[in-house]
Give the backbone structure.
Amino acid sequence: MMVVPAGVRVHLALGYTDMRKGIDGLSAMVQEQLKKDPFSGHLFAFRGKKASILKILFWDGNGLCLFTKRIDQGGFVWPRMSDPGGVVTLSPAQLAMLIEGID
């Protein structure tokens, strides 16, 4: 279980992301495609094409952290929007449900 500090927003990148990307690639994606600041202290979540891998990028005030979760069965449920390069903002409670809820 991931504990998210109070006041932190969770931004989901819509569509799917190349899971070969690391901290540098994902932070560039946050800046260029999502038009957000990766150093804001908010969480940025990305899902792979097969929906079995989730990556979360987070600035902890000292450096960028990258959390990864891979599941063996099912997939992470992701919002469907008309703009695959867009972003949806969730509450920390919604993120917890998304991480634990398997398709």
Observations:
- The chain has a mean pLDDT of 85.
- The CA atoms of residues 53 and 70 lie 4 Å apart.
- The first helix runs from residue 23 to 32.
